[in-house]
What we know:
- It is a single chain.
- The protein is α+β, with helices and mostly antiparallel strands and 221 residues long.
- It has six helices and eight strands.
- A six-stranded antiparallel β-sheet has the order 7-4-6-2-1-8, with helices on one face. It has a two-stranded antiparallel ribbon with strand order 3-5.
- Strand 1 and strand 2 (18-21) form a beta hairpin.
- The longest helix has 24 residues, at 89-112.
Amino acid sequence: QEGFYDSLLFHRVIEGFMIQGGDPNSKNAAPNTPLGSGGPGYTVPAEFNPEFYHTKGALSAARQGDQVNPLKASSGSQFYIVQGKPVKPDALQRMLEGKLNRAQFDAKRKFLSQPENKALLDSVIAMQNAGNGAAIDEFLSPYQATIDSIGSIEPRFYNTSDTAKVNAYATLGGTPHLDGDYTVFGQIISGLDIIDSIAQVRTLPGDRPEKDVPFTISLIK
């Protein structure tokens, strides 16, 4: 209603991946101006819901990387619209299993790095040094719920038995590697072909379109 988004640009376009906009610095930005760091001065807490995933047309919140944003808070204004590519069921399963393994590994590392868990860490290191790494999971099993909560692991994000999700990625396509890491808050319901046309524009280094692609917002009364 304030007109914040009027005439802003899709300032980052990567064919086969997504189109991104919402940086207020992009309005009337001169050529070669670095874009992508602007916002309204606040972030929004992450809102991950396993029912919403990154199929083509997903409207999702951009954010800063994990190193400076470990809670994965969303940008206050920047968003991206997924284009992606079709993902076969077997490839999707491998990808989701890999994401789950990495998430569990990171959660265990964070859990063991806490000062109050030093004795547990010493035991785990001793097991590794003794070549008994296979026993670590069983040793840590009593603490699994705590580990999962520290890592904010939601197993449903990695569910490969979700037929609707598997079929959507196989037919519509998308970017499943972003599930559980970036907030999805909407879905394009018509005009998917426009995403394709924007994604095909020529871009400069930094992924900014060579010719500006502005957008306007029409509020539904």
